[in-house]
Structures are given as structure tokens and as C-alpha cells.
DNA sequence: GACTGGCACTCGACTTTGAGGAGTGCCAAG
DNA sequence: CTTGGCACTCCTCAAAGTCGAGTGCCAGTC
């Protein structure tokens, strides 16, 4: 038996009421608060079906109904329209992001903004190195046997590493290397650089080859292997809203998960162009987050995507509002990046 | 009436038992677990005095006693010897810090280590720019009207800023500026640089002065005004140990405080040489942390101090152990920095 | 004077009991 | 298919009662 329109309407009403009140919702309360045009008894029958299909459940006999993960999923997919942002929110976003002075600043402001607007935990990934291009590479002599390698990406990210040279090297030679390296690598996607770095060594004059090889290996590390993704996090205090009721009694696992960068990256890092992804409860692969939902999306200048951002909260969250906010913030950040 | 030795011994026993069990401790249990050589009745009399003096209190009539903040303070100041670290802990520290590849890495490893060893929230301040010297300044042309200013400090910190030039500038001129700036500033304490930067502009050839002024202003921002302190945080999940019992029922205020960098810096940033500072409950100026204690100290290569680190936990914490761990970690990190 | 054993008393923690009520499922009738 | 009615379930809350840890005080002892 498939679900007719009224049953879907009942599900929507249940989700909305439960999200708003945090309490199991009963048939009588439902008909009172929504114009369903039928009696509580009818609603009860519908509820029985919805429960059988796995969209809602009773915490215990003689209690109201609560949406299941599947129920939220259906709600998100078919029953909710994305809310428009309020003018106040729009203004907040603009005000917050104006005046950011560099990439760090942009990311920090963004993550705080997201946390504040959604009243949940926000995560923002720094522009991924893997998706960036080399804007410039700099070699700074620290001593005769030590260099600082500084890589500046087009997304504004700057990475640096120390290079220990095998032998003292004149600063002219360093300048020389720098020129060669830049002419070879500037403008290239980081992902494409490894073969180019190899040719750097191959084409190098033999007497300088060991030194160049040394620089090249650190270069590779910096550009590709290490390829360390960075994150910013804010709003953990929001986890405590709604008491310990959300997250089935313990914040512990959630806080633990939030400390693992790898996990967070998995959550917000897997981005497909212009999609907003919603993971509800069990859909999260991470056990610790079975009781949480994650709304994430990609951002970047124009249509390209250079990183992800998102929020994490209880499964019982305002999905339409959250989705709208996440999208809007991502768009603004993308525009901001495009200006640089 | 002052406290004789046995009363102090009773206080110590109360603190130790309470920290271990998290439960109010009564007179009978005390004499059973510690060799006090007197009867419960005597201990009761001592307790009455200790309570009158404000070192312990009863959660309610007919419950055992619990140390007050003042009690912990007395315990820390006069009744506890710093514990020696276990060999396992020493090994853990060494193993953890070996293999750190750059400053970021050192700081991240340190903060995780601290959180893990103390089982509390750990905070590590990056080496403060204010206490660093300039190792090198680099100007990287991005376009003809844009430079990237990169500052490398002797502590390993690297800061970068974008400079918008008033007019297109030849790369030779940039090289020139770079040379001048470096000869003037390299090796100087960041705190001492502002007057030097001013002379940079003053001594500059008139036709280049506007450009130089522009660079100089960003330079000042980077070196001094912005002087942004950075922090790493780990172990927030440890706040949930001991249920919601610690922190008088709500993690909320604590989590909020942990999100404010300014607050954290206040907590661990005010360092005096070779002191370990312990703030207990009310001694914290931040209202949100009235129910928490903070153990912090400074670290740095040799005897100089370049930053702070510490842990935050419930007032009911193992002070001797925590103090020992914090000190040891600070020392190891200092040694590590000295090697670079 | 300090310590001790004894004793009455307090009061929170936990259990039991019972009333109240929200909510359900089912059924028969419209 | 919808609806009103009804019996039933079972949670919530409050009241009452028991239990026991822990105390304060006092009189007696060393």
C-alpha cells in the first residue's frame, strides 16, 4: 500500500511538530494544530500505516509518535520546500563576511557565522590543496644548508616546509632553482605536478642534481602527499541545547567524532557540484554520529568547488532552514573567494 | 584556632578520596581507608572545624563532606607533593613528539598528548609572535600591483598577508625593497620593529616612498597590531567523563568559553617564567569557568618562554598528577623547539 | 584537655503505591 | 473510507514509607 497525500501530510505535520516541540506528537494534538480536515481517529489509522512503513515510531505504547530516520529522509526529499532566508539573515551574512582580511579570516568568520545562524555545530574546510593551482613557489634561505619552501596557492592557501640541504648552497643557486621551479610549476593544478617535479630533477645540471632532488622531494610532500586538509570548527556549545535529550543521552561520542579531522573531512569533504547533501542519523557511516544529522555542501569561486562546509546537529533539526542557510553561506563564501 | 597536623591530614584524605570516588566522604570511610590512628568521632570533630574554616562543606545534612575551592587551594599549596611521572608516561611523551615535522605538527601533537595524558581538555598556544624575532621576510609578486608578504619567525611561525600596491611595480624594485627590509629587520624582536619600520619609509627614495609606505603599513599590521595568537585545543570529549556531575550540571558555559580564543589566551597566556599556575574554581575570572580548574605553564626553548599551554578540568581533578604532566610536556616541547 | 563510644536525629536515595491522563487500537456504524 | 466510542496500556507525577549513611552531641575514659 502506498502512501496517499494525506498520509504524507500527516508525516509532515508530525515532523514539524516534533522538531518544534521536541515531544512525541499524538493524533489529537495534530488535528488541532493543522487543518487536516479529518478526525483524530482517521489520523490514527494513517499513523498506524506510517509506522508500519517505518517512517514513525512510538517511544512506548500510549505515547505519541516520533519520526524515524527514514521519516526525516522522506520529509527532506519530498515534503519540504527550501525556506527562503529572512532579510535579517541575509544581512547577517553580508555583514559578517565583509572585512575579512585573508583566507584564515574568511574561514573563521564563515564557520562562526554558520554556527550562529543554524545554532548548530559548523565545520568549514579550507580550500583543498588538491583542487588548487600553484600561484607561486618561494625558496627562502634560512642558512646555507637550510631553505624554507613556501607555496602559495591560487585559493589563498599558503603552505611552508623546511628543506635540509645535503650541502651548503650559494644563494645564487637558490635563486636559480626558484626560477626554474616556478617556470615549471606556476599555474599548474597541484594534482598534476608530480611528473613535472620529476622532470625538474631530470633536466637539472648534474652537479646540482642532489640538491634539486632534495628540494623536489619536499616539494612533492608539500604539494601532494601531505596535502593536508585543514578545518575550522565552531558552535560545539550548541550541542548542549535541548538538554541531553538529543544524541540519545550522551554528547561523548559526538564530541569524540568532532575531534577527528579525518571524520569531519569525510562528512563535509565529499562534495559533488552544486548539491547539498543531507545525511540523517543512520545514514552516517560513523558510528558515533548515528544520532546526528549532517547538512553539507561544496563552495568555491564560480562553479568550481574548492572545499566543503556544513553543519552537524541532532536528527531532530529544522532541515529546510538549515539547508537554506548552508547553501546561502556557501554561495557567499564562493563569491568572496572569486573576488580575490 | 589554627589547623593542626591531623586536621590537615584529614583534609588531604578528603580531597584524595573525593577526587577518586566523586562522592562525598564520611568520617567512617575516612578512618577505614587512611591510617589516621583516631576514631571516626575524632575525625568528625576535625571535620566540623574544617567546615567552619571553609575548607569543606556538606552538600546536605547527613551527607559526607566535599572540599570547597579553598580546600583544594590549601591542598595544592601545602598538602601535595608533585607526583613523579611514570616511565610509561615519559615514554608516551617521547614517542608522541618524535617525528613532528613542523611547527603545526608539534603543536597538534602536543595538545593531543596533553589531552590524552591528563584526560582533560588541553590548550596549547602557538609560539607568541610578540616574543619571537624576525628570521626572514619575503615579498612575493603575485601580479604587478599585488604582493604576498611572508614573515618567518625564529620560532617557526610563518605569517602571510596580501599587499595591494598603489601602482604597478617592477619586480626589480620589489627585490630591492625586500633586501632593504630584511637588512633592517632580520633578527629583531617583533616587539621592537615599529620604529624600524618607520625609518624604512623615511629613508626610502622619494619616488618609491608611497609604495614602501604601503608595504610598511601591512608589515606593521603583520608584525605587531594583528599579532594574532593562535591556539590548538583537544580533548573536549573528556568534559563528559564523570557524567554531567562535574561542572554543576551543564557543559554549556564551559564549551562556550572554550570557543572564545580571547578567553583561552587569558587562561594559559599569562605566563611567568618557570611557574605552573593553578586556578581553582572561583579563582577563574571568567564566570563560565567557575566550576572548572585550569593548570597552565609556559614553554619555550631554554629558559625563555614563547607560549603557554595547559589543561582545563573539573575542580575535582587530580592536581598533583595534572601539574606533573603539564610541566613535563612543557619541558619536552621546549627542548624540541630548542633543537630547531 | 583530647579522644572515644554511644545514641538520637536528620535527611537524601530509593522503592512502592496509586491516581491521572494522554494516547492508542479496534470495532461497529454512518 | 471515515468516525465516534470504548477499553486498554503505560508513562508521569506525587505521596508515603523504608533504609541507611552520616552527623552532632554528650558523658565517660585516659
3D structure, described in words:
2 copies of one chain form a homodimer. By secondary structure, chain A is of the alpha+beta class. The first copy, chain A, has 12 helices and 10 strands. In chain A, the strands form 3 sheets. A 5-stranded antiparallel β-sheet of chain A has the order 7-3-10-9-8, sandwiched between helices. A 3-stranded antiparallel β-sheet of chain A has the order 4-5-6. Chain A is elongated and about 90 Å long. The N and C termini of chain A lie far apart (55 Å). Chain A binds chain B through residues 101-102, 135-136, 138, 140-142, 148, 150, 152, 158, 160-162, 234-237, 239-240, 244, 250-252, 255-256, 258-259, 340, and chain B through 101-102, 135-136, 138, 140-142, 148, 150, 152, 158, 160-162, 234-237, 239-240, 244, 250-252, 255-256, 258-259. The first copy, chain A, binds a DNA duplex (30 and 30 nucleotides) through helix 2 and helix 3. Chains A, B: It comes from Actinoplanes nipponensis. Chains A, B: Negative regulator of class I heat shock genes (grpE-dnaK-dnaJ and groELS operons). Prevents heat-shock induction of these operons. Chains A, B: GO terms for molecular function: DNA binding; DNA-binding transcription factor activity. Chains A, B: Belongs to the HrcA family.
